[in-house]
Structure prediction request, 451 residues.
Amino acid sequence: MGERAPNQGLRNLLSEARWTQVELASAVNRAAAEAGVPGTCDKSNVNKWLGGTRPQAKWRPLVLEAFSRRLGRPVTHSEAGLTAPMAETAPLAALSVPVDTVEGLVTLGREDMDPSRRKFLTTTLYAAALPVPAYLDLAGRTEARATGRTTRIGAGEVATVRTMTERIADILDELGGGHARPMAAAFLVNTVAPYLHADASEAVRKDMLAAASDLVYLTGWMAMYEKAHGLGQQYYVQALRLAGEGEDHETYCRTLRGMALQAADLKHGKKALELADSAAEAAPKAGPRLHAFLAGQQAQGAALVGNRRQAFTRLAETEAALAKADNRRDAIGGYDQAAYFFHVSSVLYALGDVSGSITAMQDSNRARPPIEKQGRAHANGLLAQRQLQVGHLEASCATWGAFLDDYEHLSSSRADEHFATLRRGLRRHLKNSHAREVYERAGELARRKAA
Prediction:
């Protein structure tokens, strides 16, 4: 049996990236952690791959993603000297968008509706080097659907989609994404997709595309919030396409901002700032609320790359724009004082001002509407961790108690993550009566939720 041929393609990429074998292994492990892929690789794995050993199926797309992030361009299987994945790697397949946007949306939604498939979808890999289609490249490029179909829609069907989107957003706020996202996926597949294929006037067709893009954006936001980052990214790309085809400039920009937030959550600071800037540049005539929404995300992106001056300049823009906005509460893509102070807290924390971030998060909580249980639970989870970080144990315990008030009623992966952090963090402080009380309450709640 002949010796394996060294993988020259992989070696060339390693040289281009200016990485050591240890650095490649570290980058692969980071991508694996984001996608929830078990196990770790190390220098010995990379050395074997360079020698011609074929990586396990689960590692191949992660290797490509690691190089794509480093080099800022898509890297193919053939370029890396790897065999393209077959069915066993489908959950981690690189993101692609079908030519027919509606067909792609139905495929994605059906997968998300199926509980047996949803677990696999959550491991879909986030592609940091994914190119984002420009609004001008999408707007008005799709031909009208064929006329003469049996089903014809009008303004009433558009109103139905918008009303359902608002209702799902309310359920998300009150009960969490674990309940709301499956509803959104089912509605997309069973109702919205047929509407998008139905006969309609040109004006109604564009209104329906815009309404659908709002719902898809919300579904992507829920997936991202629930830590299914690759899935969320796929929904976001579909929302961009629907918004462009429907000439809905605002939802296009709002979706780009959502993608910037996702990149920020994953600590891809440069990408987060790039996407936030792209969203702001694509909306030169934005109203004050949208301006605030976009500038706040630019502030966070600037903070993540260490640009203190730009971060505070953007925060000042955000505050000024929000002061000019009306007081309405938008169900989708809204921006209010609670969101502003959350951005202030995020900026200060990224720049190392933990105490300032605590004060800002408390301001955010005071401004947050009572219905937003999921948002408040997330804010309190972050707040309690930061209070413990600066040594304020009893304040942290009080915040964790408020977190548990909301968590009891939520179905949310992110809230679950905070809950696990609570139990780990307070386990070391059980000699303190406040910590022991909250810890025991958490244990009882865990038993009730598991029952």
About this structure: The radius of gyration is 23 Å. The mean pLDDT is 86.
